[in-house]
Backbone:
């Protein structure tokens, strides 16, 4: 599971239903991110992942 920050709960939690998505970055670069839901309140959580080396 992937850990992310829930803005509504103001705490780090493990995302449920986490999926990898790509988003636009600066200079036309695509960045990888994880998108999921908070298991406690159901709010959408988002975490930007690092570059693959």
Residues:
């Amino acid at each position: 599971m992937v850990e992310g920050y829930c803005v509504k709960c103001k705490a780090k939690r493990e995302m449920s239903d986490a999926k990898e998505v790509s988003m636009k970055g600066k200079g036309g670069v695509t960045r990888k991110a994880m998108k999921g839901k908070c298991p406690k309140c159901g709010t959408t959580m988002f975490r930007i992942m690092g570059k693959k080396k």
In short: Residues 16 and 37 are 5 Å apart (CA to CA). The chain is about 0% helix and 55% strand.
